[in-house]
TrEMBL record:
Keyword set includes 4Fe-4S: yes
Enzyme Commission code: 1.17.1.9
Name of the molecule in the record: Formate dehydrogenase subunit alpha
Family: In the C-terminal section; belongs to the prokaryotic molybdopterin-containing oxidoreductase family.
GO molecular function: formate dehydrogenase (NAD+) activity
Alphabetical UniProt keywords: 4Fe-4S, Iron, Iron-sulfur, Metal-binding, Oxidoreductase, Repeat
Gene that encodes it: fdhF
Domain 4Fe-4S Mo/W bis-MGD-type stretches: 8-64
Length: 685
């Protein structure tokens, strides 16, 4: 007789790939995932999901999955039990603090992990170690959004919900390729256009939405600030501004008006390569719309002047009175990782506590100290690039990297590897033996998003539940359990023993999340923040009454355009831009271990036919790419998606060496790397 098949179960959870936050139904049988289906009533996805969320779950049963902790002995990583691994980590952290003080320890938390795990990591660093040296990968992508939006409006989040954005009659989509990188949002934007909204796309490449645009602006990489000032110049010159809003709800108009006098369309055309005519067409579309909305991505932030870019873009919405009013849908960043918003919301940042209270603000510290029962350091901690610099200089005794393959994803990767190898204790929590794990002293195997309990916050500030669809392999623990276990090995009980308790405690530290709980999310599905009270619905649209700045006003910014860190020259005549493709996700550690690899098996170097002819490259053949920092090999793909002088590749295949090419130039305000502008040369091998 054959055994009866195990019954199918369904688990409702939130996608662990991009920041759209699609609700998924995960079907399992006998403890294995058999299908992932989009939830019909998902508040963001409404029955849709993309190729990543639906099909990229083969990594769960990959034979390459780490199943035991690893400890380096005599130069080699060897499997050990949890007690031995945790004891080694605890002794190493104690030793680092004893030798160099609390600031000799640093941790990189994870935008892939849940809110509760991020809350616990930052609490561990601040309470157990006694330092603010904790950061997350938003440093590498949207830290300029956090800084820029906070400076312009007061809070670090998109100003409107996506349900509002798709009611816009004009969309300005800047530096984003949502059709591939955020496909469910890409489809919703496209539907909005098909219903009649006008569309302006600003992106150097012919990204999917550009095919449907009324105007496609193709600025030279690194010239965004000049482009946005050019658009603002036209708005002012043609009276396409909301004077009442500017008088009553904004500051900084005289300074901006003076600055914009230097950005007439023809000068902007000279800087950006966008014709004055196109610039004026775009400004008039945005300026004459009744309900315009701005959506943007990493093409705005990952620059030497990324924060200035965000603020100059925000200027457009302020000039039009299209933020905090019914006359538009504000400024909305498309977050890359599933929980990059939440990791920052939870205070996994060196200068900000949960809920964005500054560590330098006595009132914010006092709130946290009352809950945690220990003093919080006033001095901001190290940012990720500063952690690596400190490690290389011998100033860091221990570094804990959680769920980030920093040796593959951070810029100037050779120097990141040097930092890890120099640091006396590197601990890495990972699913696979990543490039970072290979260099660690201790590797801790942890659970994936399909195996854990908690919440994520998506790109329009919605808390949603994450539930375990399957149990992790026997020896694997969640990050939540691991952080608790390391604290316990150091003799400290961190409290909040469950994810639900951790979110509740976070709400005491950060009242802006005080109305959100697991129980409520189980009943209601999604709750946006700010939500200070369980009886309130949460705010989908921010700033209706006042902006969250000290004076309650939106702040126009008057930052001049400054050139990018690298310019093409005779030795490196092309500009490399990196970004995402549809089937893969970030370093590809999960999407390359399963069926999605067949959909998109190699990384390509996209280049224009003129450049291919000039450098002797043919479609489908290997190309060697060199920058001032390193070398990579990619397969050339010839087409007109890029313009002459620019090449493009993804960062999904770290083995090709893409981030050995990128520079350590970084946003002057937030240290976000300038991934979008690297001068390179190409040749046949
Ligand atoms: Fe949705 Fe993004 Fe997941 Fe695709 S990757 S299913 S768009 S959340």
């Amino acid at each position: 007789t054959s055994a009866s098949p195990a019954a199918e179960t369904r688990t409702r959870t939130t996608c662990g790939y991009c920041g759209v936050g699609c609700s998924l139904e995960v079907a399992t049988q006998g403890g294995e995932v058999t299908a992932v289906l989009p939830a019909r009533d998902g508040p963001v996805n409404r029955g849709h999901a993309c190729v990543k969320g639906r099909f990229a779950h083969g990594f769960l049963t990959s034979p390459e999955r780490l199943t035991r902790p690893l400890l380096r002995r005599d130069g080699r990583l060897e499997p050990v039990g949890w007690d031995e691994a945790l004891g080694h980590v605890a002794r190493g952290l104690h030793a680092a603090v004893a030798a160099g003080g609390p600031d000799a320890v640093a941790a990189i938390s994870s935008a892939r992990a849940t809110n509760e795990e991020n809350y616990l990591v930052q609490k561990f660093m601040r309470v157990v170690i006694g330092t603010n040296n904790v950061d997350n990968c938003s440093r590498l992508c949207h830290s300029p959004s956090a800084a820029g939006l906070t400076a312009s409006f007061g809070l670090s989040g998109g100003t409107d919900s996506f349900d509002d954005v798709e009611r816009a009659d004009c969309l300005l989509v800047v530096g984003a390729n949502p059709v591939e990188a955020h496909p469910v949002v890409g489809a919703r934007l496209l539907q909005c256009v098909l219903r009649g909204a006008r569309l302006v796309v600003a992106d150097p490449r012919a990204v999917g939405l550009a095919l449907h645009a009324d105007v496609h602006l193709r600025p030279r990489p690194g010239t965004n600030v000049a482009l946005f000032h050019g658009l603002a110049h036209v708005l002012l010159a043609e009276g396409l501004v909301d004077e009442e809003f500017l008088r009553d709800r904004a500051t900084g108009l005289p300074e901006l008006t003076e600055l914009l006098a230097d950005y007439p369309p023809q000068r902007v055309a000279d800087i950006t390569g966008v014709s004055a005519e196109h610039l004026m067409d775009a400004a008039r579309l945005y300026g004459r719309a009744e309900r315009p909305a701005i959506v943007y991505g990493l093409g705005v932030t990952e620059h030497l002047h990324g924060t200035d870019g965000v603020r100059s873009l925000a200027n457009l919405a302020i000039l039009r009175g299209a933020v905090g009013t019914d006359r538009g849908y504000g400024v909305n960043p498309l977050r890359g990782q599933n929980n990059v918003q939440g990791a920052s919301d939870m205070g996994a940042l060196p200068d900000l506590l949960p809920g964005y209270g500054k560590v330098t603000d006595p009132a914010a510290r006092a709130r946290a100290e009352e809950v945690w029962g220990v003093p919080v350091r006033e001095r901001p901690g190290l940012r990720i690039p500063q952690m690596f610099a400190a490690a290389r200089a011998g100033g860091l005794g221990a570094l804990w990297v959680i769920g980030e393959d920093v040796c593959a994803t951070d810029p100037d990767a050779n120097r990141v590897a040097e930092a890890l190898e120099t640091c006396p204790l590197t601990v890495c929590s990972e699913l696979f033996l990543s490039e970072t794990a290979r260099r660690a002293d201790v590797v801790l195997p942890v659970a994936s998003w399909l195996e854990k309990d908690g919440t994520f916050v998506n790109f329009d500030r919605r808390f949603q539940r994450v539930r375990p669809a399957v149990a992790p392999p026997r020896e694997i623990r969640t990050d939540f359990e691991v952080v608790h276990a390391v604290a316990a090995a150091m003799g400290v009980d961190l409290g909040c023993p469950t994810p639900a308790a951790a979110l509740a405690e976070c709400g005491w530290v950060a009242p802006v999340f005080g109305g959100v709980s697991h129980d409520r999310l189980d009943r209601e599905g999604a709750v946006p923040w700010p939500c200070p009270d369980p009886g309130l619905p949460g705010e989908t649209k921010l700033y209706r009454a006042r902006f969250a700045t000290a004076d309650g006003k939106a702040h126009l910014a008057a930052a001049p355009y400054l050139p990018p860190g690298e310019q093409p020259d005779d030795d490196y005549p092309l500009v490399l831009v990196t970004g995402r493709r549809w089937a893969h996700y970030n370093s590809g550690s999960m999407t390359r271990r399963g069926g999605n690899l067949q959909l998109d098996p190699v990384d390509f170097l996209d280049m224009h036919p003129d450049d291919a002819a000039r450098y002797g490259l043919r479609d489908g053949e290997q190309a060697v790419v060199e920058s001032r920092h390193g070398r990579a090999r990619l397969v050339a793909r010839i087409g007109e998606e890029t313009v002459p002088g620019q090449v493009f590749c993804s960062f999904h295949f770290p083995a090709s060496g893409v981030n050995r090419l990128t520079s350590d130039h970084a946003d002057t305000v937030t240290s976000c790397p300038e991934y979008k502008v690297t001068a390179v040369r190409v040749a046949a091998p």
